[in-house]
Amino acid sequence: MDSCLDSINRQSRQCGDIVVVDRYSMDGTVQIAKAHGASIIQSSATRSAARNIGARGSDSFGVLFVDSDMILLPTLVEECEELLRQYDSLVVPEASIGRGFWATCKRVERENYLGNMLIEAPRCFRRELFLAIGGYDENLEAGEDWELRQRSARKGLKLNRTRTMILHDEGEYSLSTAFKRKYMYGKTVRRYLNRNPSASLIQVNPMIRVMDPGVRIMSHDLKHGLGVIILRGIEFAGAAAGVVSGRTRAPTEDSRHDFTDNFGVVEKEPNSDSKPAARLSAT
After folding, report:
1. Which alpha helices (DSSP H) does 84-174 contain, by range?
2. Which of 67, 68, 62 is nearest to 80 (CA)?
3. CB atoms within 10 A of CB 234
4. Fewest Cβ atoms closer than 10 Å to its Cβ: which of 68, 109, 117, 200?
5. Integer angstrom CA distances of residue 264 from 20, 48, 227, 230
6. What pTM did the predictor assign?
7. Beta bridge partners of 64
8. Which residue in 117, 60, 62, 115 sits closest to 84, CA to CA?
């Protein structure tokens, strides 16, 4: 989170405010946020609801939702602010960084999805329009970004994408990390799949999401192409286990969010079984 907040404060066009919405965490989130000049809101809300709380608590023109394990490149806020003068929502393409073989596999896999609008989803919005269409569906804790993109399109919001990418720091990525992360998503993704059966046939189709990127990458990088197939297979197994678990247990996802004003940014802590969640809004 420290690196994320630092990257927000180093933008070529500064955010007017940074607000961290913290889920009563005990991991130093409040101290880190204050050290970066952020305001703090504490709430026990889950991820989708927390993002909406952050948006409602800001008076910004635009809002950008950012995971706390992400790093903003220096011109991102400026570009988003300029594009929001003409468009209502923006996709910000992601590039993965991290250490080790599996982090490299995640990077090349993510590169394969750039420009694929069935996989990518907007994370930057005109705040008033975001709120007018209801924000994130608070009954969804997985697939909520896809659902919001589909609803935005039905409501006629104009969509574009930034050239500036956002970096997603996977850290020391491992197969166990991949399994656990997707397990948490799988516990609630069934709600999204039930509501969006046609889109979900593509978005969670293992042939499209596991084999297709792996085969494409293998054509020029055999080692990492095979790695992507293994990694995606483990992730799908984790999600499937989560779906089975979610049938009998209520979801207990922890996440973290944040955001900014004049232009807004929202930050979210990675899903975790042990850490409470936080969220940030800069205005």
Report:
1. 101-112, 127-132, 144-154
2. 62
3. 19
4. 117
5. 12, 16, 37, 38
6. 0.81
7. 124, 265
8. 62
CA gap 103, 111 in Å, rounded:
12
153 contacts 199 by C-beta, under 8 angstroms: no
**DSSP label at 265?**
E
CA distance 239 to 237: 5
pLDDT of 230-269, one tens digit each? 999 999 999 889 988 876 554 444 433 444 444 555 554 4
Strand order of the β-sheet with 94-99 is 70-72, 166-172, 94-99
Q: At 234, give phi and psi (nearest 5°).
A: -65, -40
Determine contact, residues 48/137, Cβ cutoff 8 Å.
Answer: yes
Q: How far apart (Å, rounded) are the C-alpha atoms in residues 107 and 236?
A: 17
Look up tokens 């899903």; give the residue.
271
Domains of the chain listed by start with CATH number: 2-282 (3.90.550)
